[in-house]
Amino acid sequence: MTVIENMSFEVADGDYLCIVGENGSGKSTLVKALLSLKKAEKGSIEFGEGLKKNEIGYLPQQTMAQKDFPASVYEVVLSGCLNSRGIRPFYSAKERKKALETMELLGITDLKNRSYRDLSGGQQQRVLLSRALCATKKLILLDEPVAGLDPIVTAELYDLIEKINKSGVTVIMVTHDLSAAVKCSRHILCMTENEWFFGSREEFLKSKFSDFMRGSEAGD
Question: Has residue 158 been placed in a domain?
Answer without folding.
Answer: yes
